[in-house]
Design goal:
alpha+beta, disordered C terminus, single chain, 2 domains, elongated
Length: about 300
C-alpha cells in the first residue's frame, strides 16, 4: 500500500507566511550580527542559527498550512541565505562607520563621497574589488577569528583566512540550512486533513507484535491485507517488538488514517528506541477494526518498559 504523500497545496495565507520568512531572515541576520560582536563560537552558533531558522520556518509552514515540502524548502533556503547575507551587509556597514569615525577623528568632518572614494581605493588595492564584494574578500584575506569558551582575556582563539574562510562560511551555511530544512520538510510532510483543513493529531500507539513477525508485517503492509497480523496483535509485547501507531484527523475522524509500524527496542537507561519500519494510508473503518482487535486480544506484559503509549 502507498504511504502518506502531502497534497503540495499552498493556500493564500501560506504564501504570505512563506514571504514573511524572508523578512524574518533579515531580522535574524541583524540580531546575529550584534550578538557576534560580543562572542562567536565555532560550530555552536551555526547550529543554534539552524534551529532558530528551522523553528521560524516550521511555525510559518504549520500556521500557513503549507503542504508542499519543495516550496517550503525553497523559501527556507532563501531565508537562510538572506539571514547570512544580512550579517555580511551589517558587517560592511559597520566597517564603513568605523572608517568614517577614524577619518573624522584624524582629519575632522569630511565629505562622505571622499570617504567612500578612500574606502573603495583601499579595498581595490587589497582585493581588486570595491563595495560589499571587496569587503567580503578583504574579510577573507584578513581572516576570521573565533572565540574559544576557555578565553577570558581574548588572548587566544582560532583564525582562518583566504580560501579557508570561504570554505568555513560555506560550511556554516550548509549547517544552518541542513538543520532548518530537516525541521521544515518534516512539518510540510505531516499528514493533513483536506476535508477539515487541519493537521492530523499525531501518532498514537495502539498495539504491538513480537519482532519475530517482522516479515509478516512487511508482507501485510505491501499487500494491504492486514488479517495475518491481527491474530497476535496485542496492546503490549515483549521488547524488542513491532509497535503499531495510528494518526488521524482529530476533528472529523472519518478521513483516511496513517498506519505506521515501528521497530521498538530498549536503549540506554531504559529508554525505548524506535525506528519507522512501514507506513500505509488506510480507511478509517480499517483503523477502527484494528483497534477493536487489540481490545479483544489478551494483553501481554512488557519486559524492559511499557509501550502502551508512544515512546518519547
Amino acid at each position: 500500500m502507498n504511504s502518506y504523500h502531502p497534497s503540495n497545496t499552498i493556500p493564500a495565507a501560506g504564501i504570505l507566511f512563506l514571504l514573511a520568512l524572508l523578512v524574518f531572515g533579515a531580522g535574524l541576520g541583524v540580531l546575529t550580527f550584534f550578538v557576534s560582536k560580543l562572542v562567536y563560537l565555532v560550530i555552536l552558533f551555526p547550529i543554534l542559527l539552524g534551529f532558530a531558522c528551522g523553528f521560524i520556518a516550521q511555525t510559518a509552514v504549520k500556521i500557513g498550512k503549507v503542504r508542499s515540502p519543495i516550496v517550503a524548502a525553497v523559501f527556507t533556503v532563501l531565508m537562510v541565505l538572506i539571514m547570512y547575507g544580512t550579517v555580511r551587509m551589517c558587517e560592511y556597514l559597520d566597517f564603513k562607520q568605523q572608517l568614517r569615525t577614524m577619518i573624522v577623528e584624524e582629519y575632522g568632518e569630511t565629505d562622505q563621497a571622499l570617504i567612500d572614494e578612500f574606502e573603495n581605493a583601499v579595498l581595490e588595492d587589497e582585493t581588486g574589488q570595491t563595495g560589499l564584494l571587496g569587503f567580503v574578500a578583504y574579510e577573507a584575506k584578513e581572516g576570521e577569528s573565533f572565540t574559544r569558551l576557555s578565553d577570558t582575556d581574548g588572548s587566544s582563539g582560532i583564525s582562518i583566512s583566504g580560501v579557508g574562510a570561504y570554505i568555513y562560511w560555506f560550511i556554516e551555511i550548509l549547517i544552518i540550512a541542513g538543520i532548518a530544512l530537516s525541521m521544515v520538510i518534516k512539518q510540510a510532510r505531516t499528514p493533513f486533513c483536506e476535508t477539515c483543513d487541519r493537521w492530523y493529531g499525531g501518532d498514537y500507539y495502539f498495539g504491538a507484535l513480537p519482532m519475530s513477525e517482522k516479515e509478516t508485517v512487511k508482507a501485510a503492509f505491501e499487500s494491504g491485507v492486514f488479517s495475518p497480523i491481527t491474530k497476535q496483535l496485542h496492546k503490549s509485547a515483549n521488547l524488542p517488538a513491532i509497535g503499531f501507531y495510528l494518526n488521524i484527523c482529530p476533528q472529523c475522524q472519518t478521513s483516511d488514517a496513517v498506519f505506521t509500524a515501528k521497530l521498538l527496542s530498549v536503549g540506554s537507561k531504559g529508554k525505548i528506541n524506535e525506528s519507522k519500519f512501514k507506513e500505509a494510508v488506510i480507511p478509517m473503518n480499517t483503523a477502527r477494526e484494528l483497534e477493536r482487535v487489540v481490545v479483544n486480544n489478551d494483553a501481554v506484559s512488557v519486559r524492559g518498559g511499557s509501550i502502551t503509549q508512544t515512546p518519547a
